[in-house]
Automatic annotation (TrEMBL):
Domain of life, per lineage: Bacteria
Gene3D superfamilies, sorted: 3.30.160.20
Annotated segments matching region Disordered: 98-134
Family listed: Belongs to the prokaryotic/mitochondrial release factor family.
InterPro entries cross-referenced by the UniProt entry: Pep_chain_release_fac_I, Pep_chain_release_fac_I_sf
UniProt name for this protein: Ribosome-associated protein
Residue span, Prokaryotic-type class I peptide chain release factors domain: 16-32
Composition skew (Basic and acidic residues), residue ranges: 113-125
A molecular function GO annotation: translation release factor activity
Protein's organism: Wenyingzhuangia marina
Gene Ontology BP, a term: rescue of stalled ribosome
């Protein structure tokens, strides 16, 4: 994954931010919308694309386009920097494959704890029975 190539493939669009802010918010387009076409990206390998499409499926459009917004700052430039940073973090988090679990046997002490716990529960439940008066 080459960050410079990926950043070149990003599309940005500035729109008016929502919410309070008065005249400033009505006149200035400070909200930044980032779009990234995952399917047609040349910066990612096919395996990386498949992995990202699988992991980010809930955030993608039908055409496998990722859309992110940022309107945290009053400045369009800050919002653009923030959204790029957020996008790169999202990619790096979702490109990491989890380590494969190696099956291990439970330790002797863990087995003993489990058996003791079962015996205590059995004893507790047996005390709930009505006593037998033969």
């Amino acid at each position: 994954m080459n960050k410079e190539e990926i950043i070149k493939e990003l599309n940005f669009k500035a729109t008016r931010s929502s919410g309070a802010g008065g005249q400033h918010v009505n006149k200035v387009s400070s909200k930044v919308e980032l779009t990234f076409d995952l399917s047609n990206s040349n910066a990612l390998s096919d395996k990386e694309k498949e992995l990202l499409i699988e992991k980010l499926s809930s955030r993608l459009t039908k055409e496998n386009i990722l859309i992110l917004f940022c309107d945290e700052s009053r400045s369009q430039h800050k919002n653009k920097d923030l959204i790029i940073k957020k996008f790169l973090e999202l990619l790096s988090q979702n490109l990491v494959r989890p380590k494969k679990r190696r099956p291990t046997k439970p330790s002797i002490s863990a087995i003993q704890k489990r058996i003791d716990s079962k015996q205590r529960n059995a004893e507790k439940k047996s005390l709930r029975k009505k006593p037998n008066h033969d």
